Amino acid sequence: MGPGPINADPRVLRAMSAQLVGQYDPAMTGYMNETMALYRQVFRTANEATLIVDGTSRAGIEAALVSLIEPGDVVLVPIFGRFGHLLREIAERCGAEVQVREREWGTVFTPAEIEEAIIQTRPKLLAIVHGDTSTTLAQPLDEIGEICARHGVLLYTDATASLGGNTFETDAWGIDVVTAGLQKCLGGPSGSAPITLSPRAVEIITARKSIEAGIRAEGDPVIAQPIRSNYFDLAQILDYWGPKRLNHHTEATSALYGARECAVILVEEGIPAAVERHRLHGTAMVHGLRALGLTLFGDQSVKMTNVVGVEIPAGIDGDGARAAMLGDYGIEIGTSFGPLHGRVWRIGTMGYNARRDTVLLTLAALEQVLRRGGVAVTGGSGVGAALDFYAGEATAA
Amino acid sequence: MGPGPINADPRVLRAMSAQLVGQYDPAMTGYMNETMALYRQVFRTANEATLIVDGTSRAGIEAALVSLIEPGDVVLVPIFGRFGHLLREIAERCGAEVQVREREWGTVFTPAEIEEAIIQTRPKLLAIVHGDTSTTLAQPLDEIGEICARHGVLLYTDATASLGGNTFETDAWGIDVVTAGLQKCLGGPSGSAPITLSPRAVEIITARKSIEAGIRAEGDPVIAQPIRSNYFDLAQILDYWGPKRLNHHTEATSALYGARECAVILVEEGIPAAVERHRLHGTAMVHGLRALGLTLFGDQSVKMTNVVGVEIPAGIDGDGARAAMLGDYGIEIGTSFGPLHGRVWRIGTMGYNARRDTVLLTLAALEQVLRRGGVAVTGGSGVGAALDFYAGEATAA
């Protein structure tokens, strides 16, 4: 019940245990095509260029940034948590001239602030995190695409923490490139990074395409300034996932099976139903934590559905309490990074773990741990508040 | 029965279906430590810095090269197949001044040729493929480490295709950095790249360490020329796998389970026994193919145990024959790349597929496909030669 990775859906684990098939077996290329179609639904996009990068979610981020950024490009990164710093760092390593704007952790940017920063810095690319798990908040993006389009700026966002459990609209919000991971609301293991690219992004990237000498044919162009990475060269990866099937890496078959099954499950449930499930159980958790006397962290009006931060109460050993949760009850909760390390616990309700039983068990165990840690708690208060909330929702429904 | 990926060992698939645990759960960090210890045995090394890069085998290559190479460094790449071209390409993208030497596909370099190239180019790093699946040959490396040490050159090799099925001695051969993948002799899925780094390589890499702003503490140094990739920054990855457990990516848990099980199986069997098993079944396949009248490709004195190339006979449709093998018999065999595409078939006997039944079945099916493709074959010749070979080996043993 931490901020992710979480328990995987058993269906995903079962899918991953299927025997491998060859890289160009029609069954395998068929799975690849199915996976592309499924993730178009997950990302809510018509982008043909929707596929999986073989690596963890930050592999997806780096693939997007290194393929889009040419050394010297101006990239604007609004930072409101740890993963904004990560975007800055990756963009810097890609050779970008990075401009940052920072908000205090626990807040997000207004559209006007972002537009002002665009006017001041004139970037080629705006790179911004959607949900930053470090603070539990999601940057509203529904107005940002229009602002970027008006100023001729490409828009990239990292939706690892939010996708599948929070409303996310790639096309309706006008986002050029989105990357994600499986280990949050999608209910799978870390190791696969779904990505979608708009036709405009594809055009920029394919203009930088360089074909490997070992498989180059006569007449293929040689690019003077190729993408700085081979593994993350989306121009090549698009040719591997596309009808050309030009050999690049050897697709991680088991991971592909897992990524495909995560999307199958989500599409079967329906994206709006999955978002509603995350809202329901996330809110129940919030009610329970408040009733235990805990103070929530950050601007709750923009909190993600699937994770909540609470201030660690005075007098209790935060890491000791987390160790007790794990050692005595088998439940993991997280702390956070940088300025929030040791100050905030983060508790997730996401993917397969966004369930009533997990919420109630976590609250019951936390009550015991808080009490033994010397925090005054009213017996049954957390579980009671969550149950009352569930009852109210059931009546309203 | 292609050149890899191959069928995974069912034990590996079962290991991968275990439920996830949290990133810093003592069970998880325990698995990580066990995996490091196991791969020290697989690589035949005492290197503390032995771990898994989360990505396919070329992710391991890129992690090694981008972490070792500073822009402007001279890197020497002797090329004897497609994957040598890949090393060149990745090194170029890392900003290296790459010097290449090329041998005709189907041959390898002599130690003297490599020493001469070192003297001519004075590289910081020699990057060379061990077994290049594109040609089925393995470059002998047992004398190369000593040559590199004498000239103060770092030695990197890609052992993806060979490790676990051919003799490979990281420490005894004096190799600084080795990377691999699971999808060949290790009997697992693509998606994890084992890597080992000598203390000298670790020293070079950690001198370039830059800690992410989002988790940087006061007093941590800021490096002017950090490693060009964040995802492949081995200095950071070493801190994640080491006792500091400094957060980097979220470890791909299922893939780790798989990588660990591959090594458990190999260490249980014993590395020499596994190499001998690959030799036995690889040689049986060779006898069978020759008896079917096929001509082997390349210098057989340096052929890898686990894959063999044969010239596609005149008059037969090579791709049609491969399609018949897959469609009618469920057996995949490969062609090759570049100059060998459509000229050579590659047939593997590796990992879980290095078995007597797979060899005999493949030969039986290939006989049928050759005959129907218009190639004159003597009924039972391939299977018979393989059976005779097995019988001879059993008598000798």
CATH topology of the largest domain in chain A: Aspartate Aminotransferase, domain 2
Output the number of helix runs of chain A: 13
Nearest-integer average pLDDT of chain A: 96
Distance between the termini of chain A: 27 Å
Structural domains of chain A: how many = 2
What kind of assembly state do the chains in view correspond to? homodimer
> Do you know the CATH architecture of the largest domain in chain A?
3-Layer(aba) Sandwich
**CATH homologous superfamily descriptor of the largest domain in chain A:** Type I PLP-dependent aspartate aminotransferase-like (Major domain)
Rg calculated over all Cα atoms of chain A: 22 Å
Helix content of chain A: 40-55%
The beta-strand count of chain A equals 11
CATH top level of the largest domain in chain A is Alpha Beta
Family (chains A, B): Belongs to the class-V pyridoxal-phosphate-dependent aminotransferase family.
Domain Aminotransferase class V (chains A, B): 28-191
Binding site for substrate (chains A, B): 346
Cofactor (chains A, B): pyridoxal 5'-phosphate
Written overview of the protein:
The structure is a homodimer of 397-residue chains. Chain A is 42% helix and 13% strand. Chain A has 397 residues and is of the alpha/beta class. Chain A folds into 2 domains: 10-267, Type I PLP-dependent aspartate aminotransferase-like (Major domain) (Aspartate Aminotransferase, domain 2); 271-396, Aspartate Aminotransferase, domain 1 (Alpha-Beta Complex). In chain A, the strands form 3 sheets. Chain A has a 7-stranded mixed sheet with strand order 1-9-8-7-4-2-3, with helices on both faces. The interface between A and B is large, with 70 and 69 residues.
